[in-house]
Amino acid sequence: MSDGEAGILRAERGRVLVVDDDVDVCALLEVRLAGRGFEVARTTSAAAALDTLATAEVDVVLTDIKMARMSGASSPAARTCRWW
Q1: What are 1-46's pLDDT values in tens digits?
Q2: Residue 79 has pLDDT above 80, yes or no
Q3: Strand, helix or coil for residue 2
Q4: In three state form, how does the secondary structure of the chain look?
Q5: Is the pLDDT of residue 74 over 60?
Q6: Rounded distance, CA 61 to CA 19, Å?
Q7: Distance between CA 41 and CA 46 in Å, rounded?
Q8: Domains and their CATH numbers in the chain
Q9: How far apart, in whole angstroms, are the C-alpha atoms of residue 64 and residue 46?
């Protein structure tokens, strides 16, 4: 598969923002999701996630619920999310 085809495949799978204050968890999720064809951005705080969401198109936010300062559940972005 060429680099161009990989980019098309990733765009079709979706864009995921991973938010977790544990850098190792972010890295693991990024590797696993990217390996399945998703385009992945990651941040280590809810505040940084809000900055990312202001400028990037994201299909799904995968967040840790318990983080220092502002949890994933209490962030302003969570108010517009659908919870599963």
Answers
A1: 444 444 444 456 889 999 998 999 999 999 999 999 899 999 998 8
A2: no
A3: coil
A4: CCHHHHHHHHHHHCEEEEECCCHHHHHHHHHHHHHCCCEEEEECCHHHHHHHHHHCCCCEEEECCCCCCCCCCCCHHHHHCCCC
A5: no
A6: 7
A7: 13
A8: 3-80 (3.40.50.2300)
A9: 9
